[in-house]
Amino acid sequence: VSEPIFRAAHSIKGGSGTFGFHEMTEVTHELESLLDRVRKNELELRSDMVDVLLAAGDLLRAHHTWLLVRE
User: Fold this and answer.
1) What is the pTM of this model?
2) DSSP-based three-state secondary structure for 44
């Protein structure tokens, strides 16, 4: 389960970095690091982590919307 989510975070991080969206890059870097540890079985995914991942997704969505509206 974590591999597709890790890949999505990795792609978002790369794209946001390419276009200079530094805040989005920082958030997705943290998500990617957490998900990498989970997929390598270095860390067990807990419900509080899922809550943070979902909140981060909401934050990224809101930031993306803000970027679109400000243009």
Assistant:
1) 0.78
2) coil
